[in-house]
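Consider the following assembly input.
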Amino acid sequence: MSVEIFTTVMTLASSLVLLAGIAILWRRSLPAYIHAFARQSFFIVVAVLVLAARERDRELVLVALLMFALKVVFMPAALRRVQRHVGADADVRPYVNTPVSLAIAGILTLVAYAVAQPVVALSHLPTRGGMPLALASVFVGLFIVASRRSALSQIVGFLVMENGIALLAVLATYGVPLIVELGVFLDVLLGFLVMQVFVYRIRDAFETTDVDRLRSLRH
Amino acid sequence: MFLLLMLAAYAAGAVTALALPPARGRRPAAACLALGALAGAVAGARVVITGQPVGWELPSSLPGLALLLELDPLGGFFLCLIGLVVLPAAIYAPDYLASPAAPDAAGGAHAADGGRVAGALTALFILSMSLVVAAGNVFTFLLCWEGMAVCSLLLVVGDGATEERRGAGRWYAGMAHAGFLLIAACLLLLAARTSGGAFADIRGASYGLGTGARNAMFLMALFGFGSKAGLVPLQGWLPRAHPAAPSHVSALMSGAMLKLGLYGFLRVVFDLLGGGPPWWGGLALALGIISALYGVLYALLERDLKRLLAYSSIENLGLIFMGAGLGLVFHGAGRGDLAALALLASLFHAFNHAAFKGLLFMGAGSVVRATGTRDLEAMGGLIKRMPWTAACTLVGAMAIAALPPLNGFASEWLLFQSLMAGVGVAGPLFAVAMAMSVGALALTGGLAAACFVKAFGITFLALPRGRAAAEAAESPRLMRLAMLIPAAACVLLGILAPSFGRFTAAALAAVPWLDPSSASFRLDAGFEVRDGFGRIAPAVLALLLLGSAAAAWGAVRLLASRRRRVGETWGCGRIGQTSRMEYTAAAFAEPLLRVFGDLLRPTRDLTIEFHPESKYFVRSIGYRTRVRAWLEEDLAGAIRRLLRPLGGSGRLIQSGSVHLYIAYVFAALLAFLLLARWM
Amino acid sequence: MIGAGGGATGLGAILVEVLQGLLALLLAPGIVGLVRFIKARLQGRRGAPPWQPYRELAKLFGKEMVVSRNASWIFGVAPYVVFASTLAVALLVPMLAAPLPIDRAGDLIVVVYLLLLGTFAIGLAGLDPGSAFGGMGSSRALTIAALAEPTIALAVFALAVPAGSTNLGRIVARAIEDPGGALSPGHLMALAALFIVMLAEAGRLPVDNPATHLELTMIHEAMILEYSGRSLALLEWAAFLKFFVFLSLLANLGLPWGVALNPGASAVLVAAAILIVKVALLAAAVAVLETRLAKLRLFRVPELLSVSFLLALLAITSSFLVE
Amino acid sequence: MRPFYCHNAPRSSLVMAKLFAKIWRTGIVTEPLSIEAGRTLDLARRIEDRTRRLLGRALAIRQVDAGSCNGCEIEIAALPNPIYDCERFGIHFVASPRHADLLLVTGPVTRNMEVPLRKTWEATPDPKLVVSIGDCAHDCGVFRGGYGVSGPVASVIPVDAHVPGCPPEPADILAGILKALDRLPEPGSRADSRTGSTASRR
């Protein structure tokens, strides 16, 4: 694989990761969010596999498989189960309307480019073109967490953010050692499970997953 | 010499209007003005083409107070522009003013003096505008600038009979004088370093100024001239003053006077200050973009025909200042060749706007004259009763919506190209900023098209929505002729855009650091920008369109069935069609009002009257939506609150005694003399 | 420079233009018929044959025209303006050869504004007879056209800057010469943005349902509700042509291979054949897409257009900001 | 498993794949026009050859409910569906009489619909056809003599053909229209046999 094509493919994959994150801002139902997240994870898996093929690195293949199992299969399934359990009241009414969200996503992308520019300028890796995009998907994930009401969509936002970090790690270091990657997976999994429990608790306590209701705890 | 002929003709126009009784004096006065306009245009064109400035001086014993006229190519260009507006406006005025039905014709036949003073003021207004662009020193410039402002102010206020006119007068007076203060401060600071305040001297001296002083002068010039051009946030007077003035005066103000804001900006910032750092241009560009979007959004929602046109003027001046700001950015980045391109776009659009906005205001005036109202919701169907006005207005509407092959398109295309040229100039983030500007420009264009479909469609098409509209009559012959002139100009400037572009480029030669020979555009049969980055040939496009249409027409004529039957408008079989079934202006704009609801903050008011016996039957439903121009009003409110205490203390010295006033003058004189002695 | 010397001259040039114009005019109804045919098959119907639109056009040209007595000359002229502007666009977009002989006459910005000219004319015509449906259609059509403009402009920007020209001939030629650039995320996202805008401008799902008969959901159909006979035929044909032009523009920007760079007779004929295949494939894609999409609520359309705007913006950032 | 159109189900590519798989399995369900269909048409007058030539292969229908009980409408609404698929004959419904070639009128004409019906007829460009559907359109059916009923369709606008039935089957309506245009496919003709073979994939 020539460097040019490799660069193009990696940048394309990074763009798709970002676009999948942005798709959440456009979609309006939790299942669609979960699906977009699964798709985003899938694009990262593809990126890791392409990298593995280029570097002829077995560990990376393992990482990709783990990632696939966890983020494309398990987490979406678990999220779907939670969603079905929590039911239709997990209405996704964002604080910010769709066009404005999309505009903010555009601005966040520009900011990501501005922030990442020094790093990109220093780097000589052929994957550097994707770094600002990965950073942008971290931002978009944060924005989802900040702008959505339902605890469940906040989890999705968190996972999108985490995906962005994972992609950044892949692009910037050509894959961290397997053991570190495993640790990260475990962290994410743990965080995910804890949040899942929280969603159930919030749901039990307030009969909704609208995090806004937590305000009533202030007294 | 044409310049002097122009001055003489305008002066004669003023005298004629004042001396003869209006019924007999209007036409001779108009003839004088038209002659003056032609002479001015010829004088300006000659200066632009030959590149030789012409000058004339009335010496004075006091230093700095000499009247100095010096017409360089830039001024000449604007003199042509003024001529293009004045000529039709002069032809338009007599019949328009003679009509008793024109309610906005302050100084019309029903005014107390029969409109003598108004006629003379119009002539003086035109004269002072023409002198502004010919002014060769600070004193002349400021004198004419103020003369222009005062004359137009008086024309806007008219007899001050309605609250609308008085309100417009207050807004306009406030803005114009705030602007004048800034301009005067800026120019006087510039002149302070020279002996006579002649522009030629300032040019050489301004390079020695400190950065802080230059920045301050730039800001004063931007906001001072910006207030005349109606840039946001100084746009508030435009939608008030334009509707209140008689329509030919609106045409003059919007078509010509606003452009002098651009002229002043170019003269001071480009010529006298010699350009500056890129952020100057960036600021002007940003203000331009905001003004363009602001203007077009409010124009879209407006239901008052002339206010709509006024908001659209804000939009177009925004586009013009986008070009000027971009030129400044390019100059700051050391790209004189691209700066020439951006300025070409700016000047070209200024000229085009003079043509179509003058035309549209005159069209609006004809409509107002015929129907007695400016409310779009009371119009409709006028195309059948006023075919000439409708056809001319349609040309104007298409030109302002930048549809090819008319003139608006040529200049917007240049603006697009100059924005795209910004990509390689100053780093990637700037390139993205340029991309966003391109997006904003395109949005403006699209919204302008929607706006003028609404303006033209609701005014002229479908069934009349009111009795006045149903009984409207076509304007007299002279008014029609007056509208044909700018309509022809819109078409010709569009098709012959490259030739006119050459003319415009010649006017740029007045800016010393612009070297037209290195400019990044070529104009032969078409436009060519940056070595083939963009190419169009408007004449070929026009031929292509005409050819396609003719081919389609011929083929249909030959091959298709020719049967044609006239019937009713299809309305699902309802018994009769009335104008209440038509789409209204408000309804037309509703989807966009919704889309931009967060920005425009409309208030909606729904009243349903139920049948007294059952709430399942409805007697009437009223839906009223109001969009407050909150930016203007809140800003004005804040300023008013700020100024009220100041005004209160100002009243202290305001006693009404003439003697005291003379004493003030005397005291001021003494203070200045002492200041001059001890400084 | 391409375009200055590369274009054919004289008779050959005119022939290429005439061939392209005729090709577009004659193929356009067939492509729309193909979309309908594939959609019918995907709905489990036999459907009309792909050449059904030709029969419909022939029928409409043969029919009488009924004109409202409230309508003015605008109503009569508008179909010709719409048709002529669309045909002019069809002559400017490189379908067979790049650059076309009249490439110098107009660039991508001209194309955008020519289409706006058509929308302007039909918008006025919608208001002209005073029918409420027409006003509704024209208000909606202009809303969508206005909101689509920024995306188109950004996409133009994203395509033009790497190619070093806004003229379509150069853009397509560059895509052929540099296939890597054609695969770059910037280019692809710009095309995706253009595709969404194309759906909006050509009145396809999910923005407008070309098969709707419900007045309240119409956009394009509502404006032409008052037209009949030859005027309607012209408007329909222009709509077909617009769709065809969009598809061939996308096809030649996304898969530029096959476009003749030197306008020899054989190259142009091969280009014509390849063009038909590419456009037919794209039309099939549109048909499949329309099968799975529902029409959006009208006030979701601005959101869709803001998605396409964002795509175009990302296209630009990834073309310029990645160094 | 949830069906693909269920609101809560994720619209994943998997589900889309299922949708298209289902489309593939279902195949084309359009039925050939039965031989008996169309026998029951009453031609009120001879339709000109020119009209037949012009409208034969591309026919736009505007449906007018002149006061029907909506029984006929339910049958007419079945015409564009995959089973009857009127589009295969180039027949489609339009939103405006300006676009229409044929008015499909149902029901006894009520007093309130008399003027609208006439206006619809006037709004339709020539050459045009009128086909009345159902017994009521012919003789007002059970509504005959009602105070709100003005009369049969033929008393308001000239009717070219009539499809009897209460209500007539979709196949009868389709065949009636085609027969009026002299386009009814012969049994075993090409169009028919092809339909049969594709449908057999089910």
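The first strand of chain D starts at residue 42 and ends at 43. Ask yourself how this observation constrains the way the partners meet.
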